[in-house]
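Retro notes - structure team

What went well: the batch runner handled both jobs without manual restarts.
What didn't: labels got mixed up in the shared folder, which is why I'm recording both outputs here explicitly, each with its sequence directly above its tokens.

Job 1
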Amino acid sequence: MPKLPFALQIAAVAVALTAAPAAAQDYYGSVSLGGVFLNDSDNSGSFSSDFLTGTGTTIPNNTPLPAGTAVGWTTEFDTGYTLSAALGRRFGNGLRGEVELAYQSNDVDTHNNVQAAAIPLDNEDVGVLISGAPLQGATVGEVVADGRGSVDTTFLMANLYYDFTQYGAFTPYVGGGLGVGFVNVDYSPSGVGIVDDNDTVLAYQLVAGASYAFNDNTALFAQYRYRATEDVETDVDLFPASLDVENRASVIEAGLRFNF
């Protein structure tokens, strides 16, 4: 994945923000806090090497699943939070650009619909997931329904906005950004470590909002973001497999912008 070029592009934006002389109050800084509604993740992957199952409810012990066999499940998330800070500059004609650092965290609510080789496993004894294991006395569905863990992302973004005509103290705006997301995935339902891995991936966002100017120096803003990354590539710890985790969210937030 093209990780380094995006980091260099963000650095170039930071240089552009400070390279040329600017009039007073062309620069600004902002901070914001918001709620994050992370979409369900249709985790999908495959076994990275041949795997022999443990004992399931209907699946015999040592049933072979060759490398490349599909495996996956759905993960649902609790409402999370985000914090962000940005440094920007207005370029005239309504355009402004900024570099933003943001953090986002969502706890896991539950996992469900576990499948391997297109075979539903929720009603199978959880021993099926541990090579050579006997019956464990609980189903896969019961164990994974307990949603411990989280998906946490740190974003470094280069954003471009367009401010529409001001209506009194209100200024509506739209924008978007590209950057990188540093993502950590922790799936540990019922205390069973399934995934604990991280990846650095392309991130992007679309933004719409409005600001209210208290005075020439300070404004309150509220906005909606659709913020996402490429699928996060992770390794499964419980059995030999890799898994792509989706990371797409709606964000509603408010903050303060300070001109200087």
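Job 2
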Amino acid sequence: MSAPPATDAMLPEALRDALQASQAQVNRLVLGKQQQVRLAFVALLADGHLLIEDLPGLGKTTLAHAMAATLGLGFARVQFTSDLLPADILGVSVYEAQARRFEFHPGPVFTHVLLADEINRAPPRTQSALLEAMAERQVTIDGQTRALPDPFFVIATQNPVDLSGTYPLPDSQLDRFLLRLALGYPDADAERALLAGDDRRGLIAQATPLLDTQRILELRHAAVQVHASEPLLAYVQALAARSRRHPGVRVGLSPRAGLALLRAARAHALLLGRGHAIPEDVQALFPAVAEHRLVGEADNAASTLAKEILHAVPVD
């Protein structure tokens, strides 16, 4: 696949330095997870949401807190439980006797960064409270639509569905997440550094905010401007088309998933200092974008299917 005929405009030096420093700080707080940290920043720059799925105790919440501390944005955390109600997330109208009218009390969703911790411990009705917020950046309560702050970034954590006390996320909810990633166990060096170092919560509390609302909006605007050539668009389209007829796939990728993959590839290119996206960006992001959207037949694992689809589609 040929490169674009010209190099696109790059980030201003101060903005590029702030982005690099932000990634470096999160990597100091979450040891040995450089690839996962990069994916988290891809979700942020691509104006998407991030789902972190893994066993308890592997650093899912730590990564979310480290991102929030570094971004310098308003932050709220909701611990999802089996008795959590939609009003606990969105807010509720309360009658004020003195004023003789209902006053709306906003819930924690009215923030820039929302940590939905262990999202699949809540029943589907409560999970669905986030659908409109994640898709439209607004919520409708008592017939009135209220806009959410901009930027609005959801970082959700979930435990594997085979653990007790969990409810599988419906496909419509999963599709609202741009990327899904897993942390896995740390390598030996990272685990030794964790054991020998300071408590992560204390380090996160001392972290310096390195970005802000204006810088994040500028980064998102820059990500949209990253060049995607016609051959690259054809490659993304071919991956989506292959997923719909690949053996073992019951539900393939929708056009919205193709758009998500392209947005993520553009953000990934920007993080690597390029003004144009290349096939390697698409390939690096495809598993994180596709696996939670693919539905396999019988025992076909989505992770295996995503790898097979990548190998089956050549790069022209």
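One thing worth noting from job 2: The radius of gyration is 20 Å.
We'll revisit the folder naming next retro.
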